[in-house]
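Hi support team,

I submitted a single chain yesterday and got back a structure, but I'm not sure I'm reading the token output correctly. Could someone confirm the output below corresponds to the sequence I sent? I've pasted both exactly as they appear in my results page.

Thanks,
R.
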Amino acid sequence: MKQTEQKTLRWGYSTGACAAAVATAAWLRLTLPETPLPTIPMLFLDGRERILPLLEPDEGHMAAIRKDGGDDPDCTHGAILFGNMRRCSASDARKEDYTLSVGGGTVILRGAAGVGLCTRPGLDCEQGKWAINTGPRRMIAENLHHAGLDAGCWLLEIGVENGEELAKHTLNPLLGVVGGISILGTTGLVRPYSHEAYIETVRICVKSHHIAHGTTMVFCTGGRTKSGAERRLPSLPETAFTCIGDFIAESLAAACEYGMREIVVACMAGKLCKYAAGFENTHAHKVSQDMDLLRAEVRKHLPGEEALHDALAHSVSVREALLSIPEADRPGILRRLARTALGQFARRCGENIVLRLLVFDFEGQFLFEEKRGEQKEPEKNGKIFSGQSDPSHASASSPEAPTARSGEHAEPEYNGTIGLTYFLDGKKD
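Hi R., thanks for writing in. Yes, this is the structure output for that exact sequence:
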């Protein structure tokens, strides 16, 4: 067995989960001041409860936590998040704040020192408000309600020690988030991100589907695209759907190696632009958004819109750029990019494979499909079609492949470990 198949990796928690933890701890210290809080149970957005360890707060903070990124440490690993809470009136809200409905009560959510302010459109936080994304805001509200908040108006402040300095090591300055880091997370979990393990897992999934006589592989960039693809392709078995993260080149290679006749890629606009540009790995640390390609397509499609071209010259994300483009023109531009991306895939896979792109918006709603090639029947002697290598090396001597959803049952609690199958439940976006 390969070493990558034996390795186990530890999960971590997002800044959003940490923000929800200090928010809930601050509320409990208001309402149950005598109760010790060395740890706190938290409801995550995957429906599960986990126990997070808290720090002893100092004089200026009601609650604090040290972020643990698990085996996927980034610049926020070890960062200290803090929270304070007090009763207030609705008139205390500032234009930068979010107003959360919590049961019958109201929480005014404010970024304190170290939390950035969103100054540009196109992110998962509102322009002009604190850089606290949708998932964390929801997680804060749900946990406060679970902890008993159901009436009154409360001011909640979330901050990050040295957050402004930490933000210099992120994409925040480029994306228009100023003054600190963003509070992020779609589930509250941080998956351990071993590139070798991830790629090996994709290969195992493709092999497993091949062994089950599957001929169509659906590669999804994350949980929302996976859910959308499953809805669009209900006739396919669950083994056909695999989350590939950023590893498009390796995934296409695996599908070709195991003789897939059809490859479907489900993605959003950001990944689509990178696919069209021919990137092998689409991780933000590996490549930036290929804004030049998008700008060129817009200029080709709308040559006379000089004001639009000037605006796009200053756009730093695909989401922001798309918001600048007239709504009626977006589908045509995205379809052109999709056809270019399919051409890039064909250069890797050959022309004998049917290639399909399912494109979704940033909320996971289906937009359109583009297709290249036609399905061909295999030769009667059982050989795979022309242009593909023989996958006969995938014999019984190879490790047994897991099913596509086995990772859903392998997830540990705090400080636990998991193996390769953690990639398969599709919750990373």
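A quick pointer for reading it: Residues 195-425 form one domain. Let us know if anything else looks off.

Best,
Support desk
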